[in-house]
Description:
Shape of chain A: globular
Distance between the termini of chain B: 42 Å
Strand content of chain A: 35-45%
Strand order of the largest sheet of chain B: 6-9-10-3-11-12
Structural class of chain A: mainly beta
Low-confidence stretches of chain B: none
Mean pLDDT of chain B: 94
Radius of gyration of chain B: 18 Å
Order of helices and strands of chain B: EEEHEEHEEHHEHEHEEEH
Mean pLDDT of chain A: 94
Number of strands of chain B: 12
Largest interface: A-B, 25 and 30 residues
Helix content of chain B: 25-40%
Oligomer: heterodimer
Number of domains of chain A: 1
Number of helices of chain A: 4
Strand content of chain B: 25-35%
Largest sheet of chain A: 10 strands, mixed
Amino acid sequence: MSGLPTNYLTPTGREEAWRFTPLKRLSGLHDAATSVLDRISIELVGSVRAGFNIETVASADLPPKSTTDDVIIQRVRATASKVTHLKIDKEAVVNEPIFLKRSAGVEKEFSRTVVTAGAHSKATVVVENEGAGTIGEEIEIRLEAGANLTFISLQEWSENAIHLGRHHAIVGRDATFNSITITVGGSLVRLLPTVEYSDQGGNAELLGLYFATDGQHLEHRVHVEHGIPNGKSRVTYKGILAGAQARTVWIGDVFIRGNAEGTDTYELNKNLLLTDGARADSVPNLEIETGEIVGAGHASTTGRFDDEQLFYLMSRGIPLSEARRLVIRGFFGEIVGKIGIESVQERLMNRIDTELARVGE
Amino acid sequence: MSQLVIKGLQVGVETESGLTEILRGVDLTINSGEVHAIMGPNGSGKSTLAYSIAGHPKYTITGGAVTLDGVDVLEMSVDERAKAGLFLAMQYPVEVPGVSVANFLRTAATALRGEAPKVRTWVGEVKDAMSKLAMDPAFSERSVNEGFSGGEKKRHEILQMELLKPKIAILDETDSGLDVDALRIVSEGVNRVKQEQNLGIMLITHYTRILRYIKPDFVHVFAGGKIVEEGGPELAERLEEKGYAQYVKA
């Protein structure tokens, strides 16, 4: 065996972390032999307001606080010379959401972003990914003590985009991290929404929604690392697949380490298949090294339409096609409705409606 | 004036060992303004009767006929039956996550009336119906049946009946799981709709309790997949005393 750590190796597809991903479609982003542009792709929409600031600093001055074994993210870190830093001031309450827009170039590119939510601050950050692009990126989200941050990541890519990313939260003492990840666009999207706790009393809620049609591979690999006592986490991801070539992967790794007493966690993944042949992989994985916990559970369901729901709606006079539409919109709406930003919700539901119409729903 | 006619209805359900017969020839006619109580022990096929008339895909009709005002109901899809004027208040209403009560009611009313109800009058109509059933207005923003208590689910069923204005309603064990207050509110709702809309009612129940609030014109005893005895309200009183033992084969 080679003595090299795996992070220097190009994945072959046999690794647990890569066995679901079609490596051929990564455009070489995973391959050490491929050269990738070092480019900042995120910018603030509008101007800086009271309570936060955004700047570009040298990567060396703002190194990652977390470790990663993901080969793409290691390449991102090795390549990015600069990092975009969004900093929410200590005790600031930023009422209006802060929008960050990503505009990818024509070349393959890597970028790093850090979001710091100052102690006892409260804010909502929305990252909008649109258009085409071939991109690897990391956003490290640091919540200081008592911070309350809602982090919304929207993958509304056009159909050719390739997006490999890690959105990693480090949740401080008594801090609250609410994240909503919505993936409706892109040819291949592979995201790592991950969480660790740096102190006690942290609370993380991870909501996600993905909608794959023919030719899309949408992969979300959630990881919540409970390595500190008295942390809480809730994970709810929902997916819809339409088209025989639609493909989704959801991994839910939740680890409760031996010292993480008082942990309270639950994770749920639900997939709705609209078409025969569509494939949704769902792998919840809960590992518990201490019995001194508040609760730990997981559930995963993948299935077709619930006949009882359709019967109920139709028995009130609603035609089958309309009943299906209601159930599907309800399935999406449950997560989309949590965003709380009317314009974004409307835009997403319109996009979903358009795609549904395209597949005949 | 409407009339639901059930003639020699035979219904089975597909099981691992083939088609199992549940209804063995049911005859029943319900006219507008009439209340027919269907009473019987658990497993006698009462719910099968309700669901097969509404068109649940689980059941296979093997014989007989059901007509509403002379039109064949069994040929209709589930939504067409509702449009024809049938309504089923379910024993276990189904949760539809992410679909608000308000959206659901409006979609159903639009489908049944053939056009979207006018916003101003509709909102008032819903509000009014909800207040009569002692329902909090915030209820309309909740997802259909999700997290509803037993009483809330049943009130929601009757709310739909009130707004959708059917000709004939089948109430499947609407009394089950209700405390006395909820039973009274729900029963008053049923009586009100009956009065205002001259509704014909098939009231399926295991217990006589609800019959103190909703007075039946006819009582039918259901056992072994068919009606085994018929009479007026006095039959319910006799059942109250003697139970169903005499109708169930040992």
